[in-house]
Every structure is written in structure tokens, then in C-alpha cells.
Fold:
Amino acid sequence: MRTAADLNFKESGIISEIDISHPSSKRIIEHGFTPGQIIELVNRSLFNDPIAVSIRGTLIALRKSEADCIKLK
Amino acid sequence: MNTDAVLKVPLLTLVGPPNSGKTTLFNTLSGKNYKTANYPGSTVEYYTSRLLSNYNLNAELIDSPGIVSLFPESTDEKVAIESLYSHPDLGTPDLVISTVDSCQLSRHLLLPKQLVKAGFNVLIVVTMNDILAKRGLKVSENKLSKAFNCDVVVINGRTRQGIEKLIESISNNLKKINDADKKNILPNLAVQNKKELIDTFSDIEKIVDEVYIPLKPKEKINLNSANKELTLLQNRTNNNSFLPDALTLKIDRILLHRIWGFLIFLTIMGITFTSIFWIAQPLMDVVDQLFTSLNSLVHQNFNSGWFTSLISDGMISGSGSVLVFVPQILILFLILGLLEDSGYLARGAMLIDKPLSKIGLNGRSFVPMLSGYACAIPAMIAARTIPNRKERLFTIFIIPLMSCSARLPVYALLIAYLIPKDKPWLGGLILGGIYLFSMICSVVVAAVLNKFTKRIFKSDSPSSFILELPTYRIPKFSTVISNAYNSSKQYILKAGPMILGFSIILWFLTYFPNINPEIDTQGITIEHQINIERSERLQSSFAADLGKLIQPLMTPIGMDWRIGVSLISAFAAREVFVSALALTFKVTSEDDEDQNTLLTSLRDARIEPSGEKLFTTATSIGLIVFFIFALQCLSTVAVSKKETGGWKIPILQVVIFTSLAYVMTFITVNGLRAIGIQ
Structure:
């Protein structure tokens, strides 16, 4: 299954679920990543990690290892 | 009602996620007339203030650290949230004022939702309605108020629009609440069920759909924005949130460009770094001059004696070494404040996170580490922005390895000693090499220390980097300036006394017991005489005894007790090393030729019994290596103690870095000798 970490530059996706076994999952949900939301990969850094995604009208930067718990439809 | 209740001033606590306008509101309500305090037993800070008197309302106001939810993750968050439920000094708040960004309701309403559920009396303050208005929308106070069953006020913290209404609402709320039905709210700090969290968000989404209403035509700012509104409305996703700010996205196309973004970041950081150096230097010279002339004033007007020396060399010089760092601290925090307030700092952290995460640090460690090349003191204070406790302590831990500007005079002297007079360019090359070497070494040391961080810092919160990239905006100068002022003030008040104390102890060690050395005064000027006296005094002082005590340690690295004394004196501040060397080697002239005379006497210096040359190429390079690693700065130790909240980390730093310096010097000196370089 694809996750937010697999998004290509400028690609968007709809969140299907959050892997709640991931240690950062609570923080990720608290920032508004919930099922049904549309996210888009807006920027990457030189090392492709962390990535910046848009969610609920805001930009959030997060590490790929953490973006991995955001599962996409 | 008992008298206690009458006398008690109601407590208002401000809470809100980062970037929700909380601090701007606090500044408006307090008039920036606030006190900083730490929660007991922690380094987490909060601000308290009385509400401005012109609001005609007597209440205590607390600004708590920014939190996203009521369920803590890190140790620091736990402290902040426990104190929200029951403040150690001020108790449970009578009213919690929760700020939310009007453009980010669907994210920011999580906190007020949890606050209401926990049983607090809540007042929701909706901020940044001007930005929402540009999108042709406004927030319905009535609908939001009904949905949350609490008062809602829309304000603009920058233009103060809506503040009067807020005050009215606060006083109405306080009237409603009397002590009898003030609930005893118990903290529920258990990890919240994540499913429940997702459900809370769906509830909020339903509410948010209702509360956004289009502006009436006459409320619209101009036709332009009306046109924009149409496109923006069509762009709304899920009906409850917008696309991110269009201008921000445009700027980020450049500033967060994969390649250009990184180059721009390096340039901005380079400029920041050099300005701490170059802008602060003249100001630091002024401070230095001021204390030097104050010193000579004391010497001229009082009889020479131990008391005069205590006043001048101990106390005045000690205060000088506290205040000399203030220009650097001020300038660093002004620049960082501007970068932070504009929204860039979060992006910089994102760009550099990956390489730093490899050695157990975080993107936010970069700015403090870079500042460490100017001075470790503002650098350690700047590390407060790192939310993860382990990463913050680790950053503070390795900051002394960054080659700070106080090492420069030492390097300059030793390089001047090493290179032939006709090749000054070689000096620049060596200096560049020293910086490069120190940078590589700090990475290696950090990577090695990273293996032990669990044992050193006793914190196991997993490394994480989730950071909101705020909308770009023009920084508010008054806030930036008052924050820089407050950081400097705190440094003076909290680290100052300790630095002063240490300086006086050091003065004592270098002055006593031979306070009136006997010297031959024939045929020399008074100035000359004073210098010889000082030199004699130092050579027969407790510090010299200490130096002789560590002679067995100095011999293996090709040095003797005289360098030992200078190294001990250098603990007051590294640059003192040069003047202490001059004193121990009886360089008594104080004119511009100072360095040359010093160089000559260094060339002539011999190790006593054997008559070998003391300052050889090998020992000089060895000394440079020693200064690269050693933590020889009492001010740094004092600040490290304050910022880490205990003696453990500063003591470990001194022990680890100074013994590392010793070992590295030993390897360098003996290695060079082994390959035939004396």
C-alpha cells in the first residue's frame, strides 16, 4: 500500500488510514492528518527527506520515516 | 465568601498551538511587561504578567508554551500541561483563553475541544481574521460559540481590533464563575485513544463547515480580493479547509527548491554567522574598553593593594566578562527573531535535518551549532527551540566543540609563532585548516557520543521531526526586539552571578598568597614595576602551585608548569591565555610591539632542568589542538548548568572535552616528534 512517503513531487493523495502502531502516529494525527483528508507533496529538501506536505491549508514538514505511517487510498 | 477568595486575583491562562497568534495576544494584553519563570524542577519557561491596568480588570495572565493537544508526548510538554491543570504557584486557571488561527480552524480547534471536555472554563479567541477576509470569508462567532458552548471573540492582535470585546467577555466570564462552582479539574495525562482523536477531528470538521460564512459585499476589502475569493472558494478541499497561502507556496518554490533552496539556506546562515562576528566585534570592543578604563580609573585613584585588585581585577573584570557577550547575544537573537517571525527558520531546519539526524541531532540543532562558532553562550540559549529533550541536551553538549571567537587570539598568537615572517598568507591557510579540522572533529565526536546519549541524558523520547511551516509574513520588529532584550536580560541575571563568582575565585588563585612581591625597583618606570610585580605575584600564586602540581601531566605533552598556569588562567576566558603567557614569561612592555616581544620571549623559553626549547613546532601545534577540544570557559559552564538544569552535563562536558584535548595533544606532540618534527 502507498504511503505519504511514496508521493512524488507535486502529487496529491487521499489519506485512507493512519498506522497507529507507529511511535509518531499520535503527533501526526494531532497535526490534522486524518482519513479522508487530501494531502499534497509540495516541497522536498536536497536529500529528499524531510518532505513538506500540505494538509488542511497548512504546510507540514516531516521525515519520510514518519510520513510512512500515513497510508493513502 | 471568605477573605481569601476576595483577595485572590483571578488566573487567566493563554493556550494555543504554535503560530496561532498566542504570543501576539499575550503582548497586547500584558503590554510586554512580563516576567519569565521556570516551572519548578524543569527548564520549561512560561511568562506571567498582570493584565494591563487600562483594561480595568485585575487578573493574572500566564502565557504557556505552545501545545497542539492536551495529551503530552515529551517531558517538557508534560510539565507544561500538568501546570495548566494545576499551576504550582497559581493553581487552576479561572479561565482558559484558547487562541485559534481563523484560517486553520480545522486543525486548531482540537485544543479547545479537549479543554472543554476536560472541564475548563474556556474562551475561544479567533485570530488573523484579516487573512481570512482576503479569502472573502469570516468566522461566525455565534455558530462557533453554540457548537462549543463557550464565548468566542474574533480579534486581530496586530491592529488590536476586537480587544475591547475580548476584555468585556473575559470580565463577564469571571463574574459568572464563583469559587463555589469552580470545578476541581483533574488531569488525564494518559495517552489518548488515537481512534477517539480521529473522531474528534470529524466532529470539528462538521462544526467548521458551518462556521465559515462569506463576507457581505460591503465588508469586502476591494474588488480584487472579491475576484480572488471566487477562485479560492472553488479551490477549497473537503469543504473545511483551504489550500495553503498562494504567496507562501510561490516563495517556497524558490526557498524550498531542492538545490537553490539549500544554497540560499547556506548563504543566509553564512550571513547570520558573519554578522555575529563582525557587527558584534566593535560593540564588544566598546564594552571591553569601558571596563579597561574603569579598571585603570580604580588603579589610579586607590592605593595598590589586594582590595583594589579585588575590585578591579576580580569584580570589574569579572563583570566585564559577563557583559562582553551581551552584544553577540543581542545580535544573534535579533537575527534569529527576524528569521523565525518571517517563517523562514522552520524551513531552514527542514533543509538541514537529514544530515544532522545521522549523528543523533535534529534540523533545529543547526542554528545553535552555527552560533557556537561565534560564542557558545548565545548558542546554548538558542538551543531552547529544540522540542525533543534528548536532542536539545545533546546539542548543548557538543556546542563547546564549535570553535568560538575567543579561541581566535590564541590561534593568532601560535600561528604567528609558527610561520616565517615573509609568508603571512600561510597563516590564513593554517587558520582555515584549524576551522576545517575542528568541524570534522565535532562531527566525529558527536557521532561517537551519539552511541551513549541514552546513558548520558536519560531520555528515550524517539527522534521526531514534524514541524509546521508557517505562512510567510513581514516580521514584527517590536516583538523581535523585546524578545532579544529579554534573552540578554535573562543571561545577565541568571548566568551573570555565577560567572562573576568564578572570576573572583580565579582572581584569588592568581593573586594570593604572595601579594607584595619584593622586586628590585632601581632604574625602572612605575609602569614597568607594576608589571614585574604582577608577573612575580602570578609566578608565586596558588595558580602557579596548581600549575606545578600538574607538571607531571604537562611533561608528556612537551610543556611545563608555566603553560599549565596560563591554561588554568584561561578558564576565566580563553583569550586570557595570551595575557597570562605574557605575565608568566615576564613580558613587561605594554606597547604595540607586545606580540613581537612575547614571540621573542617564547622563542627563548627553555624547559628548566633539561634546557630544551619549550615552544617547538610540535608543542605549538599541540597547544592549538588542545584549544580546539578543551572546554576552558567558565561562562559556558555556567550557562550550560542553567540551560540543562543541573551540574551533571556541564561537569561531563569539562571532563570529557578537556581529557579529549589532553589525549589529542599527547598524540599530536608525540606523533610529530616520532616523524622527526620537533
